[in-house]
Amino acid sequence: MFTTKSFIKKNKIGNFLKNVREHYIRDDIYCGVPTCNKCKNVSTSNLSSAHVNKCSLFKFNHFIILDTNIILDQIDVLEEPFICNVIILYTVLKEVKHRSLPIYKQLNAIIENPSRHFYVFINDHHKDTYLLESEGELINDYNDRCIRKACSWYINHLPEAKFVFITDDNNNRKLAIEENIPACSITDYVKHLDSSSLLEDKLSRKDHGPKEGIDIFPPHLSHGQLLKGVKEGPLHQGTFRASRDNFLEGFVNVEGYEDSVLLQGRNGLNRAVDGDIVAVKIFKKDDWVCPSGIILEDEGVSGENIEDVEEKEKALKKSQITQNNSEIRPTGRVVGIIRRKWRQYCGILQGASEGLFQIFVPADRSIPKIRIETRQGEFLKSQKFIVTIDSWPRYSRYPHGHFVRALGRIGSQETENEVVLLEHDVPHSQFSEEVLNCLPKLPWIITEEDEKKRVDLRSIDICSVDPPGCTDIDDALHCRPVDGKLEVGVHIADVSHFIRPGTAIDLEAASRATTVYLVNKRIDMVPELLSSNLCSLRGGEERFAFSCIWEMDHEANILNTRFHKSIIKSKRAMTYEEAQLTIDDKTKTDSLAESLRNLNKLAKILKKRRLDNGALVLASTEVKILMDSETMEPLDVEAKKMFETNSMVEEFMLLANISVAQKILQDFPDCAMLRRHPTPPASNFEPLVKAGKHLGFDIQIDCGKNLATSLDNAVKHDNPYLNTMLRMLATRCMLQAVYFASGTLQKEDYFHYGLAVPLYTHFTSPIRRYADVIVHRLLAVSCGSDCTYPDLLDKQKTTDLCQNLNYRNRMAQYAGRASVAFNTHLFFKGKLNDEEGYILYVRKNALQILIPKYGLECTLYLVKKGEESLFEYNEEDQTQRAGNVVLHTFDPVTVRLKLDSTNIQHEKFTLQLVKPFIEGFSVSPMNELESNKMDVDSTPKINKKRKSENSKSSKKNKPK
């Protein structure tokens, strides 16, 4: 039996079309209740006759039927095993999928878990529960009617069984009770469960009840007013970004303004949370101000106390009195939220207090503190846990949220790694059975059929050069003389041979997008059998590779290029240091040593040529954490050592990527996956230009070549680290490099600014980057080694894939930095050191100090709360003066470094000035004995004899 649904739809060219859909209705759909004798039981059900739902509101065992809003708002409650024997109506399931795909996926995971006893009833297609829409009826009212009809049918179908309908829609609940359907709200149901304590903490409280105080924020405009305002012009839409240095400042990038719009104070931010899509009203030009330049932290301990905020708002306004007109930016305020981007946040309680209400401090500094209701205060004060925001009423200083789940004890490495991964949205679950089933069976061997399809290079002296301890070796090199010329080869692991398009392992790798490297842990993009074994080009083992071979003269000019799939046998897996020692040892004259020397010679020529073309040499504060191999505690923190061989490998990886980009663009002009580095806008370079000007250097930013030349010339012999700091500032001025599909941009936009090349892609790391897998597939089709498939040639599919790759790569970088920061803090606990540093930025109330030895950037506050400052700030010269001492940007200083753990969530380094000495502010230098005593007394484990470096050294150390 079937019925029809018809509706009118307007097409793209303005014509109205009538659509008719057939809707099939059946009488054999199973109700799912295991004791039912009326249904033709032709399907399976997870509902259990043995499980008992105990809720004191109802004096009988029962099955639960849920409304849509319960699933959308209370999924965290539903994930708890106390809620079982639940019937999910198909009407509800469809609406959840339409309104929130992430929650739909969470719900499906619960439904598929047999221990949870959830069952989906296809009420839309059952002859007794299907309803026709009434004329003029709203879709929400129709869905509510369908749900109530299904509830009534269950009650009449099985009078001996009991059913309870749970909904937070007051009207729907009232109508259900009138139709003799037992119904209640989720809050009432949970409060009357035996296990109510934990579940009550997890309740989402979007309905925050009666007003609890005076309004401290202005009202938001309605959604209709916002859309109209944005469309007609008075309002502007953009993504809100909170300042990490000043909790009373934020920024929104909007169309029509080169600079981002500055928001300040409570009224300016108006309950926006980092990532929200907001509507802003921009002030008249006379009311524009510049960013404050001061560092403000939210020290509030009460959910409603705003006295400290008001005090800091006064300090914010005071900082605007003497402002530089050249730094004035468009200023405005948030008038409404177009779309919230709230997610789950990791963090801790801020000094657990008595009572139900606690303040939660997120790990992410850009997120405000959150007010939660919990009965587990005593337990949670030692835990890191997850919280979700439910609402932010006008009367509350902080948003309101609820507890989701505990992660583990504060400070444990396992917990902190979990926090890093969750905060940066890194997929890190175990690979599923479906994925593992895609792996080749062991023992894996190379067959005669494989040899016929590939070029055999096993006789060539090929070697890999990587960081120490690296197990995911995805590239190897060779160089040999041929007919008076040099044959140079880059050989890349042929990962695409094992990961076929559309398989479970391919979809998983595409979702993960990249391998993530933490200090003592690696989250692989592909299972370990591939990443550390079959695809790793280990010394002495035969492996499949994709080779890029150049014929070069001795001046590194490319005479010919070819690509092919190959079989290689790396003669040796070397570290950068081992390769360097081999090159430098003139007594070594074997073919491998000569190959490395020739590679190094050619690499120097290639690098000089790149730099002459305007490629930038930038700098960052990268450090290496040395770990105890047994306890996995940090033993030392040191700057990464660089050898000529680092640069040697980098040059040939860059050259391979450029050569491959040219080939795939030639054959796939519309769908080649390329990588571009956009030219930064001139405004990005303002801090760099200003810093150079104060030092007497003219930093030219009109093109990359002039910038590179300016940086090369910015040298002072009395401050050898100055040039490095300028390059670090230049790095921070850059935009991020991104992947894109070639057919979506004009060719002039393909340019890679940092490398100064018109065309670039990623080919050399397919074990750890999914972009490289796609490029391998494109190149394989170009070479005739493989066939194409529809998604590979779909420009839109490639664009969507690039968006995920760009996001995942960015999050992986942030996660790696957060892991280094945590382990650096762990190393410094209990230590008190005097260290040499440099002033990186001069602020109005502080100095940003760079300590190169540890790659740390810390804040030295120049005035304590309630005290008068000894310093005089000169905004024009960017200096701080105290008596005869004047502190400039990039001046060397000596500071006392100590880790302040009073705020466990946001541990920070506190600095005291040692040199130059300023009476009444600086401290006397520590002698070596005092420093050592502090170490021994406070951190006996850390000062054990160094045993080994971290065995999981990250592949990301290799520049690509």
From TrEMBL:
Family, similarity comment: Belongs to the RNR ribonuclease family.
Region (Disordered): 929-960
Protein name (Swiss-Prot/TrEMBL): Protein DIS3 homolog
Lineage: superkingdom: Eukaryota
Domain annotation RNB: ranges: 454-785
Cellular compartments annotated: Cytoplasm; Nucleus
Required co-factors: Mg(2+)
UniProt keywords, alphabetically: Cytoplasm, Exonuclease, Exosome, Hydrolase, Nuclease, Nucleus, RNA-binding, rRNA processing
Domain PIN: 62-174
Encoding gene, per UniProt annotation: LOC115882390
InterPro entries assigned: Dis3_CSD2, NA-bd_OB-fold, PIN-like_dom_sf, PIN_dom, RNase_II/R, RNase_II/R_CS, RNR_Ribonuclease, Rrp44_CSD1
